Amino acid sequence: MMMKRSTTSLKMLLSSLAVLFIVFIGCSDAVFYLPGMAAKDFAVGALIPLKVNKISSVHTQIPYKYYSLESVCKPERIVDDTENLGEILMGDRIENSAYEIPFLEDEGECKVLNYFAKDCNITVGERALKQLQERIEADYKVHWLVDGLPVREYEKSAIDTGFRLGFKEKSGGDSKSTLYYVYNHVDIILMYHQKQGSDTSYIVGFEVEPKSIAYDTSSYDVSNTYLCPKSKGVAQSVSSKSESILWTYSVSFKESKVLWNKRWDVYFETGDSSFHWFSIVNSLMIVFILTIMVAMIMMRALRADFRKYNAIDAEDSEETGWKMIHGDIFRPPARPMFLSVLIGSGVQVFFMTVVTMVFAVLGFLSPAAIGSLATALIVLFVFMAMFAGYFSTRAFMFFKGKNWKKNTLYTAFAFPGIVFGVFFIINMFLRGSGSSAAVGPGSFAAIIGMWFGISVPLVFWGSYFASKKPVPEDPVRTNQIPRQIPDQIWYMNPYLSVLMGGILPFGAVFIELYFILSSLWNNQFYYIFSFLFIVLIILIFTSAEISIVMCYFQLCAEDYHWWWRSFLVSGSSAIYVFFYSISFFGQLQITKFVSVLLYFSYSLIMSLAFFVLTGSIGFFSCYWFVRKIYSSIHIN
Which residues span the membrane (predicted)? Predict the structure, then answer.
């Protein structure tokens, strides 16, 4: 009867979660989907849709919609593509454009975009020119898409997508005076691969060569012809209070031998790939050797201890070292609820990370699917809340805790609440800046709905099942009166040992961390998920290894307060991650307050996630180790 009720309640819970998920997504302006990767072929004369995305700068880290530029030409009706949550959080806003590109027709002919846009004024006022100057000063880049391929500048590094909005130069001998020029003409170069036995082709490359050209518009009538007028022979300035700007373009097609399924390879070719490979292999070998060395030391030390403690005819039966504290080793820690909440949050981040890496390695989260990685991280974090509730409650029961429902509430709202609070503050500043990365009301409601409608119920669900499981019996009895801890050697000081313990896990990931931060803050693609998965495995082993070693040294010093230290030893690597983020900040040349706030807020979230992740790995490793050794000895 109880089994039937449990099954029925489980079905009702899953059904309600599914309904809530559909309702919140349907009511929001963010749709959670991974874009399709099916090949699209084009026939001769078919119009190729060129879509505009955002403008971004590595100096401000604040993206804007392309059509936030008041001077650019817009189509008669702007149509937004359906975007997933990851695209919205990254500031991607994909919209249609006024560019007319018939496939394999009018090759190389210069056209005026103002003609096709119909409502694009040639005369640009002071306000729009000032906006262009500010964006050029901040070195903003334009991002376009054709058939899902991001634009890259002609004969430039493919990893740096987009092309510059304009350029600036100093005027005369006055270093304080700056002239600004906009790239108002683009030579669009489309590479195509001819489909065998068919009249259709695939788009396999998209490049743009931007130019700044001032046209003679004195006798030009945009309503009569779309052909470009004569050039004045100078660049198009935007430094005065009023300018006549024609936005022009030409299109050329080049046949390519690149297959459709290989068209993204050029975006992943980095100049420092050999350094990347060498660094990863070097890090892997160092950690592997250290692991073997530490394992050998631990095995020899423990075997000697077991022989001494379990010897039947031992001459000296006096207990020393870690066996001497067997009556206090499972004494509950201080602030057990706080520790169990951190452990549950760490397990949630752990499962989110592992599942995401598996999907990425299998190719489901390709950079070709814009925003898929960020969307997967958020959705998986929400659904992995069931593990947070389960393991948090189990840890709380290990600590002899009684009020598991209160512990569940803290687990459901503590770590997610901190992340959401930081995100809310960031979003307010982004909305104040008019950035496209600001989340709208619909998406905001969807995020809150996922938290309260899916994550929180899953936490309680996991906690409920954990509360029904019996607590494993301790292998040794706990004394009623705690024993006094002897004076510790200086290097076993809790603060020093915790900081020392975090070095090894950080050393396993800091090289890969450089590539991740470079890709994230320099608007580049990160694609070597197989290496990242290897680094994740190394991180798991090193976090477990250093926690066990430091725990063993602590127990040998007859200090039984190991619960918190087992979490903090490996978790302290997050301190080094945060300080590394601070040192990396010097390479970005960010000066605006909102940009600085954005960088350090996201770095804080990343470091907190790294803290609970590595800390929970260290805790469960030490818990297994302590139970193992104390269940293997004979207590008199």
Answer: 275-298, 338-362, 368-388, 409-430, 442-461, 495-516, 528-555, 567-588, 600-626
